[in-house]
Design goal:
Blueprint (H helix, E strand, L loop, with lengths): L1 H21 L5 E5 L2 E4 L13 H28 L2 H31 L6 H10 L10 E9 L6 H10 L2 H9 L6 E3 L6 E2 H7 L17 E6 L2 E11 L7 H34 L8
Antiparallel strand pairs: 1-2, 3-4, 3-5, 3-7, 6-7
Helix pairs in contact: 1-3, 3-8, 4-8
Length: about 280
C-alpha cells in the first residue's frame, strides 16, 4: 500500500512538472531554478464568483505547493543516483500505462458486459456454494404497527392485524394515517439488528420474543403500543435464503463475467493487432 501511494504521488508530481515545463510561451508567475510556472497553469483553479481575497490566497497556496514539489524533484535529481532515477522513471511510465489501460478496459467492459443475472443462474451458484452463505446474525419476516393504546378502534385494529386476511390488509392500509409508524411488508427478510434500531421498544431483554416463528408480540413504550407478528425466523449459522443473498450473488456473477471478458479482450486486442500488422515480434 505504501508503494502504491508513493507511485501515485510520484506520478502526479512528475506529470505536473512535465506539464508546466511545456508552457514556455506563456506569462511566467513563478520560477524554481530552471522551471517556470505560467499564468495559464493556474486558470483552472479559479472558480467563478470567488472573491479577490480568496482567489489570491488560493493562487498563493498553489504556487507554494508547486515550488515545494519542484524543489523536492530538483533535490532528488541532484542526490539520487542515475540508476535510482531511471528506476523511478520506469515505475512512473508503468503506472501511467496501467492507468490508461485500466480506464480503456473499464470503458470496454462497461459497454459490453451483461449485468442481468437471471434467477436460474443465481440459483445454480447458490446451490453450488451454500456453505458460503451462512448467517452471522438473525433474520426475520414480520409486520408491525405502532399505535396509540387509547385509539378508539384499538381492539378492531389488533384483531385485524393478527388475522390479516385480504379484507384486513385493505382496511389497515386505508386507515394507516392513524398509525405512528408501520410496515406491512412481511414477505422480505430483515436483520434483527435493524428491527431493534427501528423499534425502540425492542431491547436485549425482550428481543428473543421476536425470534419465535409465528409469534405475536405486543410491546409498549411511552408513545403507544407496538403490535408485531413474526412470520418466519432464521438464526445465526442457518443458511441464508436465496432472496436475501441474491444481490451478493449478482455482484459475484457480474464480477466473474468481467474477469472473463477482460481475458477475452486481452486476447482479441493482441490477435487483431497482429492481423492488422500493428504488433510484430522480431526474431
Amino acid at each position: 500500500m505504501r508503494i502504491k501511494h508513493f507511485l501515485i504521488g510520484l506520478f502526479v508530481l512528475v506529470c505536473s512538472c512535465d506539464f508546466i515545463k511545456k508552457s514556455v510561451d506563456g506569462t511566467p508567475i513563478a520560477r524554481v531554478n530552471e522551471n517556470y510556472l505560467y499564468q495559464e497553469d493556474i486558470e483552472d483553479i479559479l472558480a467563478e464568483g470567488i472573491s479577490k481575497e480568496d482567489s489570491t490566497l488560493l493562487v498563493q497556496n498553489f504556487i507554494n505547493k508547486w515550488a515545494t514539489q519542484q524543489l523536492f524533484v530538483d533535490g532528488a535529481k541532484l542526490n539520487l543516483s542515475e540508476e535510482k532515477q531511471e528506476a523511478f522513471n520506469k515505475l512512473v511510465v508503468q503506472y501511467k500505462n496501467d492507468l490508461y489501460s485500466k480506464a480503456y478496459i473499464e470503458a470496454l467492459v462497461k459497454r459490453s458486459i451483461d449485468t442481468t443475472v437471471p434467477l436460474n443462474e443465481a440459483q445454480q451458484y447458490y446451490e453450488a456454494n451454500k456453505e458460503v452463505f451462512k448467517l452471522n446474525e438473525e433474520l426475520l419476516k414480520f409486520r408491525y404497527v405502532h399505535i396509540d393504546e387509547n385509539i378508539i378502534n384499538y381492539d378492531d385494529i389488533r384483531t385485524r392485524f393478527k388475522r390479516y386476511n385480504d379484507k384486513d390488509k385493505k382496511l389497515l392500509d386505508s386507515i394507516s394515517i392513524q398509525f405512528k409508524s408501520y410496515s406491512f411488508n412481511d414477505s422480505i427478510w430483515i436483520k434483527l439488528s435493524h428491527v431493534i434500531r427501528k423499534i425502540p421498544a425492542v431491547n436485549s431483554e425482550n428481543k428473543n420474543q421476536l425470534l419465535k416463528k409465528s409469534n405475536f408480540v405486543q410491546l409498549k413504550d411511552s408513545l403507544g403500543v407496538y403490535l408485531m407478528q413474526i412470520n418466519d425466523v432464521l438464526v445465526r449459522n442457518d443458511t441464508a435464503p436465496l432472496e436475501y443473498v441474491k444481490p451478493t450473488i449478482d455482484q459475484i456473477v457480474i464480477n466473474k463475467r468481467k474477469l472473463e471478458l477482460i481475458k477475452e479482450l486481452e486476447k482479441d486486442i493482441t490477435k487483431d493487432a497482429i492481423k492488422n500488422k500493428q504488433f510484430e515480434i522480431y526474431n
